[in-house]
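SAMPLE LOG
Freezer: B-3
Tube label: C17
Construct: single chain, 449 aa
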Amino acid sequence: MTLKNVHIPSLLSLAVAGLWVTCSPLAQAQSLVELFESARTYDASYLSARLQYEANLARAEQTRASILPTAGLSASAAATRTDLTITPATALNRSFSSQTAILNAAQPLYRPGNWATYEQGKKQVELARAQLDTAEQDLIVRTSQAYFEVLGSQSSLAFVKAQKAAVAEQLASAKRNFEVGTATITDSREAQARFDLVLAQEIAAENELRVKKLALDQLVGKAETQPRGLAAPLVLPSVVPVDVNAWVSQSETAHPLIRQAQSNVEIARLEVDKAEAGHKPTLDLIASYGGNRNPSGTLTNSSGSRSASAAVGLNFNLPLFAGFATQNRVRETLSLSDKARTDLEGARRNVALNTRTVFFGLLSGQGQVKALEAAELSSQSALDANKLGYQVGVRINIDVLNSQSQLFQTKRDLARARYDVLVSGLRLRQASGTLKAEDLQAINDLLAK
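STRUCTURE (predicted):
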């Protein structure tokens, strides 16, 4: 049995070189935290949510006016000319002016509808805060997803390039062996077909990377972003706590969607109070002070005059009948209050289901990483065995090519699985409502320095 004089480069060294290109820190490379801070100041969806939050705060403050005193000042000035003719011999021509100013003030003493409106304003603040938290958590996940999609595309491209180099060497070896008569033309054609296929994969990987970079650039508002890769060796963070019920329990009090639904329940209850206040009396404290000045007298008095008056009192109003509008309004608000409670229960169920789904998905992802790490070692061993078998003539060229393809596919899947686990960890915190911007620091510590 004749040994074939072939030289096949180490796929492991090529893969490591590809990963080094992907993960090596560049001078202009940015970390995940840096790009998230950029997205915070640029992303239109998040900025819209933050501005809506500020508007809701101002709207809530407006409800305070319904329980605070009001005051108003009115003033007027008039000039009057009177021409009065009784007989041709008796005529009265008189011009005079008057100036008036009145200051009015009122303080609600008993207005249950106004107090319900004020309490609703405070609940609107809580609702707005929960809505902003939802937008921020969504931005954290979207930024992380875009960040690791770029890294995943970079890894795929690096592995495809390494595979192309290995297949090219295998193709050259097959051609040399055919020329010296130690291999058939089939080996060359198989290697050529595999090389053409890898070229097509390289084109697709380059385009995918270009698209993912554009998406990340648009999200963070920067051109030509360069995410820092993961450091090696990588130890993925474990899931803490390990009980799914603990995550579900956290979501009961922390999840923004549940907090929004709870605020809506309180707002709906206060709306019922406002509707029922339509049957109740109101009582206001009122006061006024006014002055009148006639510097040139009046029609009947040529002497100037000045007067002032002040009044303090209570204004009581008792609704008697409003054409059944109040009763029907109460019925409407009671139904809406029941709807809000039903929506709250639905939100709790959906959040619990989503939390469990993401939790078990994360565990599955961690299991896949371990399985792929074992598959990577097995694929490398299989490739080494096929290379040796090809050299001694018990394996053919296609066996080596298939082993190469399997190894690089496993490496690509492993890199993607690791990125997916990191993002799934953030998604789990989002699902339980505990995701904060500070949680990105733990992932940032895993990046290459």
